[in-house]
Amino acid sequence: MATQAKPILYGYFRSSCSWRVRTAFALKGIDYDQVPVNLVKDGGQQLTEQYKELNPMRQVPTVKIDGVTLSQSLAIIEYIEETRPSPPLLPASPQKRAQVRMICDLIVSGIQPLQNLYLLQKIGDEKVSWAQHFIIRGFEALEPILKQTAGKFCVGNEISMADVCLVPQVYNAERFKVDMSQFPTIKGLNETLLTLEAFKVSHPSCQPDTPEELRA
Amino acid sequence: MATQAKPILYGYFRSSCSWRVRTAFALKGIDYDQVPVNLVKDGGQQLTEQYKELNPMRQVPTVKIDGVTLSQSLAIIEYIEETRPSPPLLPASPQKRAQVRMICDLIVSGIQPLQNLYLLQKIGDEKVSWAQHFIIRGFEALEPILKQTAGKFCVGNEISMADVCLVPQVYNAERFKVDMSQFPTIKGLNETLLTLEAFKVSHPSCQPDTPEELRA
């Protein structure tokens, strides 16, 4: 029997953090299995005791890979990068790597946690304007940064973790009806990235758990 | 004239994200200059146009190093690790590195942004119970993770970025009167870490901008 099992991704089709990991797998050509965790059905399947054993934070994604169970999307992607380095998702130069990680962290710490499902459930009625506020605040910072760092992609002309984080955040922005014409650099990069196969196959519109009415 | 200038840290004595970077510099024995950015005086010095040029997100820390300007504390620390690898702040094994980054990201994305100054200003009257809620939620996830990964420090017996992130988050928890006896693993690690010189010299109680009445 082969012991080299495929990685398993516990995720949700519409979770932007799950989408980051799906894209990283796709860019590196890594085959994996998906186990859907429905964040809204049954009051949220991530809240079960069984799932909590895998992910004490009760969030998606979780990945089982190489005998370890990992959570936190960027930590998972850095692990994939270190163990499956080709094609790379970080540039060679330390300065450019730092720019990539700065963009990732701005999104992953500075925007997404302030507009995710758990937080918005606590906010209640004002949740749309709350989400818009924090996405716009983040994009107002990201736009001038990307204007300096971007070539064809977020940092220069090579695809990186920054691109993997950008696209799902723009998807969230559009769900919350943020006017993206304010952010021409972000908008242009997103449009370019969405033409790539790795973003298409990992898109929320075509996952195993995507409901019929939301399928592309 | 020497062109190899010392790094400059733009930070605030009580900012947990600034403290992370101060500790990383201290652990690696890197000499640096500090420029205080007072987050409350004058309505917040991080909001000036001058500072926005350095950090479009209008947050601390920002670091000028090796001719580049970087923001986002973890991106800064990863850059320091890549360019000044000794002593290391990441273990050698990819699995253990992933555990370190998972712990860092749980704090940096999953706790801190939900209790930071900007957010709490938006929350208003309920800010203390809000901050407690999100810190306790995060620590309830972190405690069982650390129970599995910790030795003397967060991951095994070598100090890492995870420790650098943990201590400032416990400091915030204590400011918001979270009962730390619920989290014996976190509490014990924090007590051990606070005995180390690198955490002492970077502590909010002894920075250039620490007000007289808060000095240790």
TrEMBL record, chains A, B:
Catalysed reactions, semicolon-separated: RX + glutathione = an S-substituted glutathione + a halide anion + H(+); 4-maleylacetoacetate = 4-fumarylacetoacetate
Residue span(s) of domain GST C-terminal: 93-212
GO molecular function: glutathione transferase activity; maleylacetoacetate isomerase activity
Domain GST N-terminal: 5-88
Cellular component per GO, a single term: mitochondrion
Subcellular location: Cytoplasm
Pathway annotation: Amino-acid degradation; L-phenylalanine degradation; acetoacetate and fumarate from L-phenylalanine: step 5/6
EC number(s) stated in the UniProt entry for this protein: 2.5.1.18, 5.2.1.2
Key words, A-Z: Cytoplasm, Isomerase, Phenylalanine catabolism, Transferase, Tyrosine catabolism
GO biological process, one term: glutathione metabolic process
Signal peptide from the UniProt entry: none
UniProt keyword annotation of Ligase present: no
Lineage: superkingdom: Eukaryota
Cytoplasm listed as a keyword: yes
Listed cofactors: glutathione
Family: Belongs to the GST superfamily. Zeta family.
NCBIfam families noted in UniProt: maiA
Protein name per the record: Maleylacetoacetate isomerase
Species this protein is from: Paramormyrops kingsleyae
